[in-house]
Amino acid sequence: MNQAIRKLSGLLVLPVLLAALLLLPVRANAVEYECTAELPVSVKLNGSNEELFHITIECAEDADPDQPMPAEEEEGLWVAGGDKVSFTEFCYTEPGDYKYIVKQEKAGTAYMTYDDTVYTVVIRVTNLETEEGTTLQAQVYANTDDDPENKVAELSFLNTYAPPTPTPDDHPDIAEAIENGTWGTPTPKPAAIPQTSDNLPLVSLIVVLVVAAVAIVALVIARKRSGKKNEE
Length: 232
Description:
Layout: H1 2-23, E1 35-46, E2 52-59, E3 77-80, E4 84-92, E5 96-105, E6 112-113, E7 119-130, E8 133-144, E9 155-161, H2 172-180, H3 200-231
Parallel strand pairs: 1-9
Antiparallel strand pairs: 1-4, 2-3, 2-5, 5-7, 6-9, 7-8
InterPro entries: Strep_pil_isopept_link, Strep_pil_link_sf
Pfam family, one: FctA
Organism: Gemmiger gallinarum
């Protein structure tokens, strides 16, 4: 009798365990999901200059040094004044706050004032529930070191190129050109002198001189012959 009860109990345990497992909530592991992010950066320029400005990105001091970095980590971004580009291919596989420092390197161009703003960027990765299941999403927040309490709408650097304007006392020719609006325009080349037949009189003169020389020689020879005949 007891043996029959034990067998019956053993048979009942397995369905109960299966039912308990089916009732446990199942949560997707974030490692199985991923999301990507981009970080746009713009450079504005007061003045006119063809320089490409160098924007760099690095991990914040209190960030994980092994956190995901963009494809442009080593080279940085090279941006012309007035352009906007992006750090790309941030790839995240788990939720968290990822912190970066974005700044501009000074190249040392004469008369160029570089924006020395330093941005602290936080890319916050969180779970996102969708009809297909749980995935990840990324949101970007940024502030400046000068005003860490207020978030900025974009990462932007403003540089100024201001070479000195020549004065009439130092460079009267340049100052005059600036005043009349011709400074910076190339000096026109003198028009080429067309080739004509002006060489013709010189050729004719040479011919005349040669003919005259031959005539003089002939005359001298003729006189010598005439003198010899008279002596005979």
